[in-house]
Specification:
alpha/beta; Lyase, Ornithine Decarboxylase, Chain A, domain 1; TIM Barrel; ten-stranded mixed beta sheet; eight-stranded parallel beta barrel; 23% strand; binds pyridoxal-5'-phosphate
Length: 412
């Protein structure tokens, strides 16, 4: 990352400042407001209550920013999203930034073999497992490295969903089959029975709490339902996670127990069984993180598009715009025009592949060639659309940083 100035503001930029800073840039481009990002980072560390945050790389997808954040006190280690990404990070970032936990299982035998053949990477990376099938794949790869090959570090993924009525109601994500403490203990025993594997941690991510806003505008009934579900799920996890960790620790000592995400830092850190948090989205603070009661981050990531036509009074059309977030498809996954204020997407068209109409009073004040600023619904996915992030402090661009895509990587 190239930056010109040691000045380190923690104030978010205004849109006037963003406009001045980026006057020389040609849309489409993406911006990260470093003042907002630093303020968000400080608040996340405070909310983590003294436990380290393992940085979710998928939520930044920009290596220089990942490195910068990891040099901040309060952060330790990377929560990577694919094994090829983890291998790349292990080879290109300093060991002092901490170990790398791949949060999702890898079923690619060749990449697992690559890990087992690279002693340095194997010392820093842990892969995820939730079943004997995973252990079989990892063991087969480890064995190809020969008798003197490294042990492969393994973490168990404990399901954090809430199951009610004997499992007939499932609230949360469909991830790991490992739900009961006894099942976690049994899989831990299966790991330690394999000399080529080393059990190092337990992870469990409560997406139905950490990634679901509890203060959404709209239906009060829906809000009450979300809060009730989150209360029940928090109680369930506090007991079940502690029991599962005990069951695993009876089998092997653990280096870490990872849990939580941006939306649950304070609740998850208060669980004694959890040693570290996993989070990242709160740094860019995309729109899906706008409506939580526990915190209000500053928007720190934007993209700008150009007005290219004027289809009707009170309408303008910008070039591009379909930078849509993953998850259950719906309006909340669309990008949002945020400046100038008073523009919105057109319901029948949404955000288009090559152009996006916008409607609202502000449209009549815009000319061809003017810009509209947007926010993405999610954090790191923005980086799959651009090669670089322009880094802004106040009214100046102070540097730029390549995204994963800009470094030639499209991991997912
Ligand atoms: C395993 C895991 N941990 C933590 C998180 C939280 O990440 P973030 O705070 O970036 O949303 C996620 C998000 O999906 C996750 O999958």
């Amino acid at each position: 990352m190239t930056t010109e100035t040691p000045r380190k503001t923690t104030s978010p930029a205004t849109f006037d400042q963003l406009e001045r800073a980026t006057a020389g840039l040609r849309p489409p481009f993406a911006v990260v407001d470093l003042g907002a990002l630093r303020a968000n980072s400080e608040r996340m560390v405070a909310r983590a209550g003294g436990k380290p945050i393992r940085l979710a790389s998928k939520s930044l997808r920009c290596r220089p920013l990942i490195e910068d954040v990891l040099r901040t006190p309060g952060y330790q280690g990377i929560l990577a999203f694919t094994l090829p990404e983890a291998l790349w990070l292990a080879r290109t970032t300093d060991d002092s930034l901490g170990d790398i936990l791949v949060a999702y299982p890898c079923a690619d035998a060749a990449t697992l073999r690559e890990l087992a053949a690279d002693e340095r990477a194997a010392a820093r990376i842990a892969v995820m497992a939730d079943s004997v099938e995973h252990l079989d794949l990892i063991t087969a790869a480890a064995e190809t490295a020969g008798a003197n090959g490294p042990q492969v570090r393994v973490c168990l993924d404990l399901d954090a969903s809430l199951r009610l009525l004997g499992g007939r109601i499932h609230l949360g994500m469909r991830r790991s089959p490992l739900h009961d403490p006894a099942a976690a203990g049994a899989l831990a025993r299966a790991v330690v029975a394999r000399p080529r594997l080393r059990l190092v941690g337990v992870m469990s991510y409560e997406g139905q709490i950490a990634g679901l806003a509890d203060n959404q505008p709209g239906s009060p009934l829906m809000r009450a339902g979300v809060r009730l579900m989150q209360r029940l799920s928090t109680q369930d996890l506090r007991i079940r996670r502690a029991a599962a960790v005990r069951a695993v620790q009876d089998v092997a000592p653990l280096e870490f127990v990872n849990g939580g995400g941006t939306g649950s830092l304070e609740a998850t850190s208060s669980e004694a069984a959890v040693t570290e948090l996993g989070a990242g989205s709160g740094l860019y603070a995309p729109r899906l993180f706008d409506h939580y009661r526990a915190f209000t981050p500053y928007p720190a990531a934007y993209f700008a598009l150009t007005v290219t036509r004027r289809p009707a009074p009170r309408h303008v059309t910008v070039l591009g715009g379909g930078w849509i977030a993953s998850g259950p498809a719906g309006p909340d996954r669309l990008p949002t025009p945020v400046f100038p204020p008073g523009l919105r997407l057109v319901g029948t068209e949404g955000a288009g592949e090559v152009q996006t109409p916008l409607v609202g009073d502000a449209a009549d004040g815009l000319r061809l060639g003017d810009r509209v600023w947007f926010r993405h619904a999610k954090a790191g996915e923005l980086c799959e659309r651009v090669d670089r992030l322009h880094l802004v402090e106040g009214d100046r661009v102070v540097g730029e940083a390549p995204t994963y895509r800009g470094e030639g990587h499209a991991f997912l």
